[in-house]
Fold this protein.
Amino acid sequence: MKYELFDFQKSTVDGLLKKMDSMQRSYASDGSVSAVSLTAPTGAGKTVIAAAIAEGLFYSNDTYAGDDHAVILWLSDSPSLNEQTMKRFDAASDLLTGATVMEAIGPDFAKSHIKLMPGHIYFLNRQLLSAKGKLANASEGGRTFYDVLTDTISDKDIHLYLFIDEAHRGLGKDATKESTNKTIYAKLIDGQDGVNPSMPCVVGISATPERFNAAMQGRKNRDMKASVDVPVSAVRNSGLIKDTIELRTPKKAADTKHQDLTQACVKLAASSKAWKDYCTDYGILPVVMPLMVVQVEDKVTEDTLTSLCAHIHKVLPWLDISDCFANVFGEHEDIVTPAGKIPYVSPEDVAERTEIRVLFAKDAVSTGWDCPRAEVIYSRRKRSDPIYIAQLIGRMIRTPLARRIDLVEELNTVACYLPEYDAVTVDSVVQKLKEDNVAVATTSILKNPADVSFFGNAKKKIEQKLEKKYQQSSTGTAAPTLTVPTDTPSVTILEAPATHQSAQETVAGTEFAVNTEGEGFYVSDIEDVTETEEELTAALERIPKANSEGIKTSFERIITRRVRHDKPNHFLDLWDCVDVITSDIDIDYDTASQIDEDFYNNVEGEIKRHPGDYKRAYMDISNTTVIVKRIDPLTGEEFEDREELVQNHADRLVSYYRRAVSVFAGASDLVKYFINRRKNDEFDSDVEAISRISAVGACIEIIQALEVWAENKTNELLSIYGPQRYAVSEENKGKWDRIEGNTKPYIERNLNIQASITRQNKDYDAYPKHIISDEDGWAYLNLNELEKKVVRTELSRSLNVAWYRNQSRNLNASLAIPYMLNGEWENMYPDFIFFQKLNDGSIVPAIVDPHGDWLGDSVAKLQGYVTYLKDHPDMFGSVQVVADEKGGELRYLDLMLPTVQNAIEKFAGTSAKELFTGPLSKVYKVTAE
């Protein structure tokens, strides 16, 4: 593969290859036919997983020996989907190329093919096997595709696997051999009497495999294996999909189509600016160009399209009307309106055509299509169409850079504007997303989202609105006022430039003027200020009474420690560490002398330390055991039976070589260096050198020793270059964090206010003075009764001018403190950080952490607190851990006190109740409501 798979993808590949091997063995043994499903939730990287499966099947990997007889028939119901899959296989794999391995089956395939050949993937779309299709009817020579299948399956030296892409489609519920009206899928799977035999091994791939599983279980004599399931939680944690889906609906029943389209345009402008700033700041090329999808009804009129184009261009005059609009309608036609041309574009080309910023679609665009840069949806579909909206959202949840953007939470969101839905009917969209197995947590699908940001932004906007109100009051006129929701980052709001024609003039018969002045991402002609002066003043009172920069500085001084649970690959850590150092920190670092030579010497040293183990591995790899039997030709009597060792040819060693490269985490350059050194210095032949490193890769004792070397080398590099981690590019920070996290029990970094969540749920209670709030000064949080008491009490204290509800997520805006429980490191997240303003004007953070039950793991958590605070004694002014005595009085421990810290460190009990009821604790007095 051209890049490293996630752990969940690797385990999925290994699991399915084992199932396929078992299926093939059963078929070879007694003719048993079988099926298995691969459940890959939307966003799991299904195509990448499938490519890795094909690579492992044909060429082996570190857990599977490969199958020289294997061939894959890849079936879908769409030629464009097959073409897209072939492109993605080619992009993901070093070995699966269209020139040598992959072939699309065309109408005349049966003319030139007797059998499907091992080591190949053949892509078939079911339409070619229709009653009128050439493949199903006798071509020149009297052969059909079913004849090709028959000859393939009948050959015992060919192992055929049928992969069904999007396996929930096209399968009849009761398609058995006795069905009179067989589907095309059933003809392939079940076979046809006198035409083609049953398919030996069937693999169905789908996000929702229930229909496939039911169809397979309903077939006679086909063994249904336990499915291989990609864990939804693993996909969520991978960063491959966006964190949050916003479903925005009108507060009350009303025609809000234009208002919602306006806000969708505002969102596109904000997203465009955020991505441009982020990519520019961190040197990421090409810059991500966000896309807005405008989903219209099936029978949309030209007048509607004209109105939509006019409104979009009015709000976003920087869009270049000459090429920024496109459509993916099923008619496959360009659309010409008085507002300009909306050309047709093939769905699979949208992601790469970055000049397209507004895409018009009808239903779900296309099965298998996805466009990670699509971040905004404006849908005119009716309440009866939740399936189309949900499917479209599912096509848009992948992250543009295939990783979470930890530093700017806004860039991990999909915003969907649904003017035809309300709070009740939007549940149908949520339900459909669940059914489609979209790997976004239900709690991250916001049906009533509130736009929130750092309070400094909200404060500035409220003050600007108040100033405009004062101006209107003094002049007696309502001057036009332009506002924008408090999305992060802010978008510049300007009047439309004079060079642009009005929307009305454009619709009258002339096209929009083309904006060639560059992208300013400004928004034109939004709306007037709707709040009263009293409402704005009240909102300002809810904003923290503190300098926003002082709060920001205090917040970003806090150090978080995040525990990692990944199983470390010390080879991968070392190679990545070297890559980051040479690209970002020390371009003069000499890898040839520092790593290549060290690797070679350590391998040779370990061979000498484990001579017996190495010799056994070398003999297994360099030779093949051949059984020789000698039989009397007349009597048939066997008079000699012995074994001989035959040296393997270099070509035979390819699979062993690839396995060695995989063991060393893909470091083919190091493996080649070793081979060349052996040939040049020790005069080994190709076979000898390849066998030597392949045997090393197969000798567990040597690999374990080399892992220790790699770990020590990584620690050495971290001790040298760790102080310069600030120079690591944002793109490589994920690698660096992983490396550090694998050498320590945690990753340590400063909090970042920009990484805080920018969407909250308005269904929760509203609270003032939170440092993340909406433009009315409210934060919407889900607190339990004890947490509510603590917030009420702390906000009543004069020193506390602001507060923060800590996020229990692995973000740069989450304070995590590690603790050890049962020999394993875990994360805990203190509930609240309060910001106290002292007499000298300085801001000091303080933790207040309430828990209703301090039994169980509470002692371990308290000890984790103490370890953290001793390492960072000046981080907080106070740290109060509050316990609830089952509805009685509240008591707390002040963890900043040395006496309390010492008592916790020495505490040998299993329950912390003794500490909270002992003399070191104090009563926490709750402020009455």
Observations:
- Residues 173-181, 478-519 have pLDDT under 50 and may be disordered.
- The chain is about 40% helix and 20% strand.
- The first strand starts at residue 33 and ends at 39.
- The CA atoms of residues 672 and 690 lie 9 Å apart.
